[in-house]
Amino acid sequence: MFESIERLPDDPILGLSAACKLDPNPDKVDVTIGVYMDESGLTPVFEAVQRAQQMITEEEVSKVYMPPVGDADFNRGMQDLLLGAANPALVDSRVACIQTPGGCGALRLGAELIKAANPAARVWLSDPTWTNHIPLLGSVGLEIKSYRYYGAASHAVDFDGMMADLAQVQAGDVVLLHGCCHNPCGADLSQQQWLAVAELAQRNGFTPFVDFAYQGLGDGLEEDAFGVRQLVHSVPEVIVAASCSKNLGLYRERTGAVVFIAADGERAEAIQSQATVAARRIYSMPPAHGALLAGRVLTDAALGQLWREELLQMCNRINDLRTLLVDRLSAASGRDFGFIQQQRGMFSFLGISPGQVEELRQKHSVYMLGSSRINVAGINQHNVDYFAEALARVL
Ligand code: LMR
């Protein structure tokens, strides 16, 4: 049966991260995969999560299945976090929330529902976008289109290009937007730009699908939710795919949620039933551990407060690293990298060629994606000068 099966190339992100782990050079720098690293290069467990884990371990008496819709506390906590507890969509009970295996599971379930509701829907992705968006959304059989987003010369959002492309999107189509901390470019929409996108969605009748994997790592939990909440305010139907990998550090626990904001309560119930049946078809029910931890942190006042403080520290440190990086890169190379400071979240493009990226890897053991996307959170006080000097050498 498998004679004709061919080996596929490594994943563009996971493959490089694995290659870096095997590199024996003690000076190697890993800015490949989007995980937060502290000054010692460790991806820490939040203190609030550790405390929740202790409580849950003491209380747990069974490992019986989760319901397909997931944990009720988790789902409630996630909806409040994403939309704000007083959001009229929640008050009017027109929101369906399903716990998923990570943000990928949320994107996939969202795509399943789009396919079920409108098989002819085209899904518009930003150019560039996260490399896994195309297989995740395309594999359910939806047509994928792209809209202009990042101007390589300006190192900023090409908003005129974006709006010109989105003006062509038809009613019934879906536009995937990055809620904050754009992956891979780090260039986010301003509040004014979000208002304009929401107004266009309302006028043209397309459905926004927001990938919201980095809430709290741009400017703060509430600030980062501006775009999502504006869309929910302006447009009757919105889909949000959320992840607890980064902002709760639950990467390996595969903890996420897909949230559908529907026109009314009856539609929300119908969507929820479709999504749970789709989940049953693909993986039956979600994993428990991460959602129990996140649910506890999100719904316990003291743990929630501790987590918010820890997350804010993480967010501030990433933004400080952006400043540090700009200083050191500019000093070492004589070039202006000031754009990195304007961007948010874990990622930015350095704007160097694939050949220079390769040279950095081969000669200096500095690992970044071929597009020159770096994970700013992989930089620290110990490796920043080595990184800057290596970059200056290949420029
Ligand atoms: C990334 O973009 O590096 C992260 O979202 C991790 C992943 O799964 O690709």
Taken in chain order, the helices and strands follow as: HEHHHEHEHEEEHEHEHHEEHHHHEHEEH
The CA-CA distance between the termini, in Å, is 49 Å
As a percent range, the share of helical residues equals 40-55%
Quaternary assembly: single chain
The percent range for strand residues is: 5-15%
User: How many domains?
Assistant: 2
Radius of gyration: 21 Å
- The number of distinct β-strands equals 13
Overall mean pLDDT: 97
- What is the structural class? alpha/beta
Reading side by side through the largest sheet, how are the strands ordered? 2-10-9-8-7-3-4
CATH homologous superfamily title of the largest domain: Type I PLP-dependent aspartate aminotransferase-like (Major domain)
What is the global morphology? globular
Ligands and ions found: (2S)-2-hydroxybutanedioic acid
Regions with little confidence, pLDDT below 50 for 5+ residues = none
- Briefly note the CATH topology name of the largest domain: Aspartate Aminotransferase, domain 2
Could you give a short account of the major beta sheet?
A: 7 strands, mixed
